[in-house]
Each structure stands twice: as C-alpha cells, then as structure tokens.
C-alpha cells in the first residue's frame, strides 16, 4: 500500500486484511509518502504491519517501487489503495483466478460506497475510444465498444474476462511477472501509471484478468478531487500515448483530450483543464515529486 494523508481510511483496510489473513499468509508493507496527519501513528499501532518512509511525496508509482523492494523472492504482490476495503474471500478469489488462468495480473470487482459496481475496466487508450468518451462522456453506455476507453456495459462486469487494463486501486500481480516487468514508471506522479505497467505486462506475453467474485469497496476519494489533479489526469493521458506513439497519432490524441474539455468549457473547471492541456509549458507546475 502507498499512503499519503491516509489517517481516516487506513485502519479500515488493515482490518479487512486481517479477516483475509485467517485463510492466507499475508505480509503487509506500506510505503508512506510523507504523511503529516496521523497516518504513521495509525500504522505504528499495528506491530505486524511494516511501513517505510519514501522520504517525500514521491507519487504513487514511486511508492509502489519502494514497497516492492521489501518483497521477498517470488511473492505475489497485492497492490491496494489505502481507501479500499477488501471483502471476505476477495484474496482467495483473486488467487484462484490467477492459478486457473495463468494470469500475470488479476483485478477484483470494485464497488463504490453505496455497493454499486464501479466501471473500473478499461481498453487500451486510442483515438477513437477517446473521441467517443469526449463526445458522450458516461452517456449511452451501450454504444459500440470501440467508442469508449471504459468498459461501460454492466453485463461485462458479471463474468471473468481478459482485459487490457483496469484502474489501479487493487491489483494482484504474480511475483514472476513483477520481476520481469520491473519497476513502475515514476514519471507518472499519479494516474496512468497502471495503464503503463499493465501494457508492459501484456507486451511480455502476460494476461490481465478481471474476477467478479473478488470484491473490494473503494472510496474513490483517497487521491483527492482537486482541480490540479484533474489537470494531471488529462495531461498524463497525453504523456502515456506519447510514450508509445509518435508524431501525428500522439498529436491527434492530444487534440481529442482537448476537445473533451472544450465541449464542457462552459464550466470554469473544464476551461482550466483545457488550458493545462494546450499549454505544455505549464505541465511542470502540476503536482509531482519534490524538485
């Protein structure tokens, strides 16, 4: 787990892991990104939880890398957001799917605070899917799959399946796969780091599977909802596509991201994101590790 100002939520996650530890041997490792609230006091109250300081607010990918270095051998790594609670049987279901499918990564079904399924499954970022999302947002969930980067159809969340990637709130990563893929890309301070990691899993021949019988509740607010983070989300989508596509394709994708904000620019919030997307010189001012 990677924590930052997680005092309010961390005990709930640890309690849910204790329930799972009745059937599974777990080692809980926390990398703390310079919390100044009561997070460290909460963690210190659990003598069987190992926690490490990253030395600053280095970002989610960097925090995962710090925690991963404390893993031993070929241990499977269950990466969890601190604002999460795993439901009973979640870890067992993830492990069973990994064993039966040979998957390199398995993700659970995520539920929101009301117990409703959160659409966490994604397709590889591409221009057409981004354009569909720009034009329609979350409306018309039954539109053709090619017109959305998010898997929208509710029935898709009822059965196990291979996916391109999923939101990084909860990922069970096979130990061999973690070693082969290597460290998470720390150039993503927050957002798109899981897109990148799971792409590299697939490029090495690994499979990513979704398991609906493994359930976890996600507060979805642990990373915050500030305007600065909304800008970072948009910009990191562009940076990700630039990493794997050059020239015209990357330029068109950036234009589609800008179009999404332009369509919604009646809102000051979206106008600010649009300015961030088109003003690359401002990208260095977005949230990131200490410089």
TrEMBL record:
Q: Which SUPFAM superfamilies match?
A: Nucleotide-diphospho-sugar transferases
Task: Give the organism the record lists.
Answer: Microlunatus phosphovorus (strain ATCC 700054 / DSM 10555 / JCM 9379 / NBRC 101784 / NCIMB 13414 / VKM Ac-1990 / NM-1)
As for family, the record states:
Belongs to the glycosyltransferase 2 family.
GO molecular function, a single term: glycosyltransferase activity
User: Known Gene3D superfamilies for this protein?
Assistant: Spore Coat Polysaccharide Biosynthesis Protein SpsA, Chain A
- Which pathway does it take part in? Cell wall biogenesis; cell wall polysaccharide biosynthesis
Show where the Glycosyltransferase 2-like domain sits.
1-123
Q: What is the lineage of its organism?
A: Bacteria, Bacillati, Actinomycetota, Actinomycetes, Propionibacteriales
- Which InterPro entries does its entry note? Glyco_trans_2-like, Nucleotide-diphossugar_trans
Per the UniProt entry, the Enzyme Commission number(s) are 2.4.-.-
Keywords attached to this Swiss-Prot or TrEMBL record, sorted alphabetically, are: Glycosyltransferase, Transferase
In Swiss-Prot or TrEMBL terms, this protein is called Putative glycosyltransferase
Q: Which domain of life is it from?
A: Bacteria
